[in-house]
Predict the 3D structure of the following.
Amino acid sequence: MSLLALSKNSSFFRVSRHVLEITTCNTRFLTTTPSQKAQTVASASAGSNANKDPLVKTFSIYRWNPDKPAEKPHLQQYQVDLNACGPMVLDALIKIKNEQDATLTFRRSCREGICGSCAMNISGTNTLACLAKIDRDASNTKLYPLPHMYVVKDLVPDLTHFYKQYKSIEPFLKKETKPKAGEREHYQSIADRKKLDGLYECILCACCSTSCPSYWWNSDEYLGPAVLLQAYRWMIDSRDDYAKQRREALQNPFSVYRCHTIMNCTKTCPKGLNPGRAIAMIKKEMALE
Amino acid sequence: MAQYIKGSVNEAVVLPPRDKVAGSYHWDFERLLSVTLIPLTIASVVKGGAHPITDLCLGVILPFHCHIGFDAMITDYFPHRRNPVLNRGFSWGLRAVTLIVLYGCYEFNTNDVGLTELVKKVLCCIIVITRCKKNTMP
């Protein structure tokens, strides 16, 4: 027992000496000096603000609070120095939320135009806020939620019905027969894959559907350009076996035929897609049946 | 324009019942009428006078073409699911008016100049007016 006590004591001393060594080692690395390159970059960005005069522009943003529903929706003005802000409308929105009004509510995620969250009406046009450059010449930029949509709060629309409509066209591959035991790939030629270009890039931001007057008046039953673009994308996919059934599902006066080629959809698509043409191709394929 | 959610948030929208007559056949017929009107109108402008064939064709196709156009407007702005009474009222009113117009075209073709001559006169007048405006514009 005495031997055990001795050994325990010695190990304790060894540990405590280790602790001392570790703390002294750490203190040597606590103060860090920035590299020279980092210093010049930091001074340059700070200097760019100091050199330019503040370019202050107004942002008129639609505000409505569901917690105080009796208060009518109104436009609230915010002043933003564009020289201390990123170039896109989303940068201005985040700046306002950070510095001026934390209650401003909007959807955003990727900040690069691929997720479709920040879709809103900017100075009369439906686009993505992260891709819309702030107009440095205009004195006032108006931000509204997507038109003719129920508003959850401020700039956030309720897209539930839109997603339900997307689900109704069955946006997934449907094959007649199950794949055999050894086969795992559905082969597709390069020419057939090319047909999907301009259709698969849709991010379902709802800019096009909410720009269509037919969708405003008949969103209950008219599917809208976004959903119809995707319906066409699955109709012409060479791997899909149910193209005829997909077309038959649209045989009614409302789902497709409320489109009167107004073409607001193609004009406003922030990804440069052409839903109007896709709808025309659907009508053409349905006409020949 | 109430937009309410039928069923749960996760259920797909139920598409309306399938009806080819109201769907693609209706669209085909509408385009067919529009397409036949093109050569008819050109023929009327080029060679006016009283041509019984073009008179008859115009007298039938024009009222139907206009009926389909107005019917599309009624379906757009007063759909049956939202305004059932107005929809029915306007639809029947439109059908009555189309019948009257059909009778009127018949009367015009038999007892008056005829639609071919009318189309020629109207379109020539439009061309003349636009040309006059172009010449007098500074």
